[in-house]
Design goal:
CATH architecture: Up-down Bundle
Low-confidence stretches: 177-184
Distance between the termini: 59 Å
Helix content: over 70%
Strand content: under 5%
Oligomer: single chain
Number of strands: 0
CATH topology: Na+/H+ antiporter like fold
Length: about 350
């Protein structure tokens, strides 16, 4: 009993220091006018805390709260006009999802051969289909979860650092930064309605086993009402900062000191694989831009191998087409989590059979 109390107390202390580091990081990055300050700031300070003073800790519930707030916030951008634009370009969403899958597999194959990784570890370390999901599925299929985690998290950090920085410096908003003409001022009633719709989304998402249902459930339900022209409330900036803080801290807590030291030779794999996949995504974005007529900044965020929350937030910051980015990222995540694992198993089994046949 005393042992459990001691463990819980240690977790509370770690959480306190982690939140302190996150708040300091968010304010510092805001002061320096760096991109996505309330994600990147907490992320970096959390990693520094883990490596120097004490291992960072954040309860999973905090991350879920962050996803929930972002889900209802992103759903508000799906105004009727944007819904029509997405429907017109649905074929691009499908085709470019296949393109992202192919370049991810190509990237994985390159680093499998260079660093002598097994197929499952190489491919699932490279596929941007929801970081936690790719680690879990890769482990289930016989991959090395620690190496997959290093590749996934380093790529995510790189994407969140590089892409917003480049786009913020080089882009002019293609859309108004807030394009929700019919929304009302922030009020408790409107916010309560949003939270009720968000909770409904979480329940539906859980029942339907939708990945990241705390994010995608509220996003889908709120977007349906918004697309129908229903006037909904606003999410106050302070809540968005809290959501980003929790998400940034969560990414940072995945960098464990012991694992980073033990698997340090794979840090280079993650770094190089992240850089090349990001480079490939810029090329794919250019093809999407030329083919579809979507502005280049939006195309980059649609094709970026980052997360739904991070890329959608970047779209808000730079004035890109938020619903288009969310549509691409959510559709890709659903496909990569539901279909791709089965496809990878099929491909790797065929490769193993051929390899055994050649050995004989």
């Amino acid at each position: 009993m005393k042992l459990n109390t001691s463990i819980n107390k240690d977790k509370y202390v770690s959480f306190f220091f982690t939140l302190l580091a996150g708040l300091l990081g968010g304010n510092l990055f805001s002061l320096l006018s760096l991109p996505l300050p309330w994600i990147l700031g907490p992320l970096f300070l959390t990693v520094i805390l883990t490596m120097t003073v004490k291992e960072a800790y954040s309860p999973n519930k905090c991350t879920l709260v962050g996803y929930f707030i972002l889900g209802i916030s992103m759903g508000l951008y799906f105004v009727p006009e944007m819904g029509a634009i997405i429907l017109e370009r649905l074929e691009f969403v499908i085709v470019m999802t296949v393109v992202v899958f192919l370049i991810s597999v190509l990237n994985g194959v390159i680093y499998k051969n260079i660093f002598k990784l097994d197929w499952v570890t190489a491919i699932f370390g490279s596929i941007p289909g929801g970081t936690a999901q790719m680690i879990d599925i890769g482990k289930e299929l016989g991959g090395k979860p620690e190496i997959i985690a290093i590749q996934q998290f380093i790529r995510l950090v790189l994407v969140v650092m590089i892409i917003p920085s480049i786009l913020i410096i080089s882009s002019k908003p293609a859309y108004p930064v807030i394009e929700k003409i019919d929304t009302v001022d922030v009020n408790l009633t409107g916010l309560l309605i949003l939270f009720v719709l968000g909770c409904l989304g979480v329940i539906i998402g859980k029942f339907m086993k939708i990945p990241l249902h705390f994010l995608t459930g509220p996003l889908i339900v709120v977007s349906i009402f918004s697309l129908a022209g229903v006037s909904l409330g606003e999410v106050p900036p302070i809540l968005l900062h809290i959501a980003q803080l929790f998400i940034g801290v969560n990414i940072g807590t995945n960098f464990k000191k012991k694992e980073m030291v033990e698997y340090r030779k794979y840090l280079l794999v993650g770094l190089l694989a992240g850089i090349t996949l990001t480079g490939m995504s810029f090329i794919a974005a250019f093809l999407l831009y030329m083919w579809s007529g979507i502005d280049y900044a939006t195309a980059v965020l649609c094709m970026a191998p980052g997360g739904v929350a991070e890329m959608s937030l970047t779209a808000v910051v730079i004035g890109a087409n938020v619903p288009m980015v969310a549509a691409f990222q959510v559709f890709r995540m659903l496909v990569f989590i539901s279909i791709v694992p089965k496809l990878i198993v099929l491909i790797t089994n065929k490769i193993r059979i051929k390899s055994k046949a050649l050995e004989q």
